[in-house]
Amino acid sequence: MSQSGDSIVLVLIILLILFLILRKWVSFQFAKDILLNKAQKEPKQIKGEVADLLREYGYEPIEGKKKIPISIELDKEPYESRMFIDFLAMKEDLLYVVLVAKERKPLRKTGAAIRDHLFPFFLLYRPAGIVYIDKAKNKVSLVQFSHPALLESQKKFPMGYVITFLIGMIFMWIIQK
Predict the structure, then answer these.
(1) DSSP 175
(2) Does residue 44 surpass a pLDDT of 80?
(3) Domain of 31?
(4) Per the domain annotation, does 112 fall within a domain?
(5) Are residues 69 and 116 in the same domain?
(6) Is residue 121 within 8 Å of residue 131, measured between CB atoms?
(7) pLDDT number for residue 164
(8) Does residue 1 register a pLDDT over 60?
(9) Contact at 8 Å (CB) between 131 and 141?
């Protein structure tokens, strides 16, 4: 005989099992928002001289100053560091990292200096480019990086397969006689 609470417990167990199965494929963020009473917030409009300059050049700033913590291990000894970006911006649905020139650390216009200063940001975010702003000159520069794929193997014709196929065909031809 079933008790009065058995059906409720059975339904709860079935719902829990369904949740555990479906959570890999379905986002339940809406449920978290409802449970935690998170109201849909309007994105904050980023203001300032640099943000206005970005808008003037067609970029829409989406996030301000950001600190990226980095954990490093050298010979099993941990180290901590960080990187800072000034803005993240969008233009034509592409992401750009924005860095503002610093008076005490100007960017030298050589390949090695640009690489050493800006390439870590490219590797970190893989943006469409890095927007470098020199407020003193009121200048916005776009830096884009490209490099060959390092791990992509050369597309060679597999001669070993052809040779093996031909040897197999010759062997089958000899056996057939």
Answers:
(1) H
(2) no
(3) 6-35
(4) yes
(5) yes
(6) no
(7) 82
(8) no
(9) yes
- Domain count across the chain: 2
pLDDT tens by residue, 14-31: 888 877 777 766 666 666
CA angle, 110 as apex, 107 and 115 as ends, to 5°? Answer: 75
55 within a domain of the structure (yes/no): yes
Among 95, 84, 24, 30, residue whose Cα is nearest residue 62? 95
Q: Are residues 104 and 59 in the same domain?
A: yes
| Predicted local distance difference test score (pLDDT) of residue 150 | 65
Do 22 and 77 belong to one domain? no
Residue 172 structure tokens: 């089958």
Which amino acid is it at 12? Answer: L
Please say whether the beta carbons of 37 and 60 come within 8 A.
no
Query: Are 138 and 116 found together in one domain?
Result: yes
Helix (H) or strand (E) holding 68: strand 66-74
Tell me the per-residue pLDDT of 92-133, one tens digit each, with 9 for 90 and over: 999 999 999 988 888 888 999 998 999 999 988 889 999 999
Q: Given pLDDT bands bounded at 50, 70 and 90, which one contains residue 41? A: low
Quick one: 60 and 137 in the same domain?
yes
Tokens read off for 34: 């409802």
CA distance 121 to 115: 10
